[in-house]
Amino acid sequence: MSFRDRFLKRKNRFKKTFDFNESRGKRMQTAIMISKNKRDEQLMKKRNINISVNHIDSDSDDDEPIDLLLKNLNSYVNSIKSNDNSQKQFALIKIRKIVSVEENPPIQQIIDTGIIPDLIKILSHEKNVKILFEAAWILTNIASGNSNQTKTVTKAGAIPLFVRLLESNDEDVQEQAIWGIANIAGDRIKYRDQFLHFGALSQILNIMKHTTSQDILQNGTWAISNLCRGKPKPAFSKLRIALPFLQRLLQSVDLGILSDAAWAVSYLTNGADEDIEECVQSGIVPPLVKLLEMNQPKLIAPVLRAIGNIVSGTDEHTTAVLKENPIPRLFELSYSSRDSIRKEVCWILSNISAGTEEQIQQFLLVDGIVERLVEILKTDKYEIRKEVSWVLSNAITGGSPEQIKAIAQEDCIESLCNLLEINDNKIFIVVLDALKSILQFGEEHFEENIYAKYLEEIGAVSKIETLQKHSNDEVYEKASDLIHLYFWEPSDNDVDEEIFNDSSFDSNFPNVETTTNTNNNFSQNQSQHIFNI
């Protein structure tokens, strides 16, 4: 009986222990965090330090020393209780200047005066828009402090009052309300949820639809982003109303608006397939992918995250992205000096390669991309190499014979096998799945399995044999499958006994010691560079 006949017999009788699709599926992003701390600082809180507002009297002294303002703080606090609107507004302006200093604003000192209930009272009952504006500004900047300082504002009842301010006919009051909502919503999930409950998102969108103010558009987009962010996520049903407007915001010429809109989209697309479907149907994909071409560092992270979320959905969602031809740009970004960007790119490619043969082909057509992935697999940091192992394994296990042949070159195979030396069960499984597809391809297309021979030449078989002793059942079974199917040739007596017993193989694998030195299965005059065929 020839080796090939024995292989086919073993393959047909061997108990099936795994399915390539188990490890090949699309992966939602759970571990990659792009500049998380910097992003959180940017998203969550902003203080309004601009004092050049048309509500401020022109004779006010913008350069008044903070020490002098603080010296008179108690007097200002008492004055805001006055029935004289001019005196009240004057005092509020002074206090607003104190909480608007650029560095180390004395927020706690302001809180300790007991002023917050008085400010809340103004928001509740005041009709004078200038006074409303100043009180809202002070509360906004207090809420930009630490979480305890924000809590003093929310505990006093500010959340529904800020939402009510959105109904004002004065754009400056509207803008300040949006700013306050964004600051508070960015502090805690429960505040975000309260704003959504009170209808803040729909009111902000309505204001943005009818405004010509760039400041409102900027702060509104930032507020939308903060209302969409955080875990646990808000219910998608509360956020979907933002999609049509975000589709337009992604076509803005303002970099800040583009960045916040892209982050909002990244939060909305991080969910179930049906949520991703609504996002795709809203038309966000073309302008989103187009932003990659702008080469703006501020945009790359949120755009990559959003694209990655979309291609983690169905094959149809991946197709919607691929229609915009992002892969050449992703290839360029794989050379980024930022680890997080390279990792995000490889995560996106891993989900594309988990798709159809046509989708795999689309990234294989980019000249040099496989070589670049192998280079990353050889030289990059382990977390990024892991992502590449998914890219290559998905493409190999789901690709056509021609695609497997194009990917499974010597450098690729050896680099994948080197990952078997690292103690990571998930990666063991990913690599073993890829090797099984390669070996199966070799068995079906060559008289002598050139890939099996190469694995022996580079010492990979011994690594696989070692995994037969692994404590993880799935790793053990996959490794044992490979050894039994491709590297263990039973004697004629073993085959005769198999035929005589006519029973299924019972997974009693040979010991590692009996499975070495199997080079005699292959022609010794085979060219060493075996894959250029």
Keywords:
single chain, 533 residues, mainly alpha, Leucine-rich Repeat Variant, 2 domains, 34 helices
Written account of the structure:
This protein has helices at 3-13, 20-24, 36-44, 66-71, 73-79, 85-99, 107-112, 116-125, 129-143, 147-155, 158-165, 171-185, 189-197, 200-210, 214-228, 236-239, 243-249, 255-268, 273-281, 285-290, 297-311, 315-322, 327-333, 339-352, 357-364, 369-379, 382-398, 401-407, 410-418, 425-445, 450-457, 460-467, 473-487, 492-501. The longest helix has 21 residues, at 425-445. The two termini are 28 Å apart. It is elongated and about 100 Å long. Helix 12 (171-185) packs parallel to helix 15 (214-228) and helix 14 (200-210) packs antiparallel against helix 15. It folds into two domains: 1-27 and 367-533, Leucine-rich Repeat Variant (Alpha Horseshoe), CATH 1.25.10.10; 48-234, Leucine-rich Repeat Variant. The chain is mainly alpha-helical. The protein contains 34 helices and no strands. 65% of the residues lie in helices and 0% in strands. ARM repeats lie at residues 114-157, 157-185. Keywords: Protein transport, Repeat, Transport. It comes from Anaeramoeba ignava (Anaerobic marine amoeba). InterPro entries: ARM-like (IPR011989), ARM-type_fold (IPR016024), Arm_3 (IPR032413), Armadillo (IPR000225), Importin-a_IBB (IPR002652), Importin-a_IBB_sf (IPR036975), Importin_alpha (IPR024931). Residues 1-56 form the IBB domain.
